[in-house]
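Format notes (please read before filing issues)

Several people have asked whether sequences and C-alpha cells are stored in separate files. They are not. Every record keeps both together, in the order shown below: the sequence lines, then the C-alpha cell lines. Line labels are part of the format and must not be stripped during preprocessing.
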Amino acid sequence: MSSAIGGYRGLVVWQRAMTIAEHVYELTRSFPREEQFGLTSQARRAAVSIAANIAEGYGRGTRPAYASFVRIAQGSLKELETHLLIAERVGFVAMAEVESVLADADELGRMLRSLLNKLRPNDLSPKP
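Then the structure lines:
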C-alpha cells in the first residue's frame, strides 16, 4: 500500500471505525451485568473488529488482501448493527441512543464500499 504519513491511522475510514468502537463501549456500559459475556461482549468485539480488520488489511500490503479484510470489516459492521438493534429490542438501550451509532455505521458502510471500489484491480474493470 502507499507509504502515506500515518499509514492506516491516517485513513479517515479507520478513524471513523475507532470512533464507533468508542461509542459502542460507552453505550454497552449500561447493559445488564449478566450480559457481560453475552451481548455486551459480542457488540464490543464486532466494533473492535471493524477497525482491526481495516488496519490488518492495510498491513498486508497487497490490494487483494486489503480488499478481503475490508470485506470482513463490512461483515463486522453489519454484525454490530444487528447486536445494537437486538439490544434495543430487549430493552437494554433506548432507540434514541442506538440511532446515532447506526447513523455513523451507515456512513462507515458507505466509506468501506468506496474503499473496496478503489482497491479493485484495474484489469478486472469492465471494458467498454
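For reference, the curators noted about this record: The chain is about 70% helix and 0% strand. Residues 9-121 form a domain with the de novo design (two linked rop proteins) fold (CATH 1.20.1440.60).
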